[in-house]
Design brief:
Subcellular location: Cell inner membrane
Strand content: 5-15%
Largest sheet: 4 strands, mixed
Distance between the termini: 209 Å
Membrane topology: Single-pass membrane protein
Helix content: 25-40%
Shape: rod-shaped
InterPro entries: TonB-dependent_transducer, TonB/TolA_C, TonB_C
Strand order of the largest sheet: 1-4-2-3
Structural class: alpha+beta
Order of helices and strands: HHHEHHHEEHE
GO molecular function, one term: energy transducer activity
Pfam family, one: TonB_C
Number of strands: 4
CATH class of the domain at 151-248: Alpha Beta
Length: 253
């Protein structure tokens, strides 16, 4: 078959330009701007319908009240015995705290008051009674010779000692009461006295009675009358208490 060739007459008017036929895809799909506007309108309409339904449709949400708070429960129990605390070794903080606040030192020990010096007792032997006293001297004669203290005689071998010197000083100052001689009162009175290092008698009192008031009084006055006594040796304490017997006998040699 031969192709048909169309010849246009030059004298005839020109043919109109061909119009492109619309594409099926372009007619079926809307444009992008129109599609966004349509979606927005639909969303606004749905929200408006929902709000209207809530306002005019009698929809009221139910509010549920929260449950009441549970009351506080306090359990009272009897006090249990305290649990002994275990000793924990001090940590670094406690060591620093103790170093900042040191424990005060213990107070110095109180020195005990000096006790009273122990008394020194002299126990001289008593003189033996004469086997033959002989006839008694008449009362009109001179008073009998007073018996000297036996202690100095007993300490004659130790006259160089301090005790012997004290007894010798007491013997020199002993006085036999005349009234006791007339009544023939005899006995031994023990006297306790304290003296200082210089030989001063601080006090004297009766330790044991002789049985006669006059003899006891004379015995207590003997140390005071004999002071100052021989001073205390350096190896002895500053004060010394002595207990000495003062004997009164009639007719002793």
């Amino acid at each position: 078959m031969k192709p048909i060739t169309l010849l246009q007459d030059e004298t005839a008017p020109p043919w109109p330009a061909p119009v492109a036929a619309p594409s099926p895809l372009s007619t079926a799909l809307p444009r992008r701007g129109s599609r966004t506007a349509a979606g927005l309108a639909i969303s606004v309409g749905l929200h408006a319908a929902l709000v209207g339904a809530l306002l005019f449709g009698g929809f009221h949400p139910d509010f549920v009240a929260p449950p009441p708070a549970a009351p506080m429960v306090v359990e009272l129990e009897t006090a249990s015995p305290p649990v002994p605390q275990r000793e924990v070794p001090p940590g670094p903080e406690q060591v620093e705290r103790q170093a900042a606040h040191p424990t005060p030192p213990d107070p110095p020990p109180v020195k005990p008051a000096p006790s009273a010096p122990e008394p020194v007792f002299f126990t001289p032997p008593r003189p033996s009674a004469p086997t033959d006293p002989g006839p008694a001297a008449p009362e009109t004669t001179a008073p009998p010779v007073l018996a000297a203290l036996v202690a100095p005689r007993a300490a004659s071998n130790a006259v160089a000692t301090w005790e012997g010197q004290v007894l010798a000083a007491l013997e020199k100052k002993r006085r036999y009461p005349p009234a006791a001689q007339l009544r023939r009162q005899q006995g031994v009175a023990h006297v306790r006295f304290r003296m200082d290092r210089g030989g001063k008698v601080l006090w004297a009192r009766l330790e044991r009675s002789s049985g006669f008031t006059e003899l006891d009084r004379a015995a207590v006055e003997t140390p005071k009358r004999a002071q100052p006594l021989p001073p205390i040796p350096v190896e002895r304490p500053d004060q010394v208490e002595l207990v000495v017997p003062v004997e009164f006998f009639i007719g002793a040699p």
